[in-house]
Amino acid sequence: MLTLYAIFLHANVNWDFGPLRAVVATPVFHRWHHSRERAAWDKNFAGLLPLWDLLFGTYYMPRGRWPENFGIHEPMPAGYFGQLWAPFAALRRRSPKTNPPDSR
After folding, report:
1. Cβ–Cβ contacts within 10 Å for residue 48, how many?
2. What is the residue extent of each domain of the chain?
3. Which of 7-21, 50-64, 82-96 has the lowest mean pLDDT?
4. What is the DSSP string of 75-100?
5. Pairs from 15-22 (Cβ < 8 Å, separation ≥ 24)
6. What is the structure's pLDDT at 97?
7. Helices then strands, each counted (H, E), the chain
């Protein structure tokens, strides 16, 4: 049953269930998660119950608007292995550098 629900969440329809929009995840809720619009970044992580996003401040469902532009913001490496390595390379670039010990 959850597999069917996951397929439903990826449907290209503008359904948000009106007053239940904050209770049950919908295709619009999930599409905002994938939006390239800056206000939607790091939002709507819940797979079924948006209550979690409401509790953690990551809920994003602007009324009267639909997500339109999807994808990632950085260039994607070419090839299978380059794409598999990309998240690790990003972590490595972000890790804080430590100062070498003083050799006096």
Report:
1. 13
2. 2-94
3. 82-96
4. PPPSSHHHHHHHHHHHHHHHSPPPPP
5. 16/61, 21/50, 21/61, 22/50, 22/51, 22/54, 22/59, 22/61
6. 56
7. 4, 0
Query: What six digits make up the tokens of 96?
Result: 């804080």
> Who's near 23: CB < 8 A, 6+ residues apart?
17, 49, 50, 51
Distances (CA, A) of 79 to 15, 86, 93: 35, 11, 20
- 17-48 tens-digit pLDDT: 888 988 999 999 999 999 999 999 999 999 89
CA-only gyration radius of the chain, Å: 19
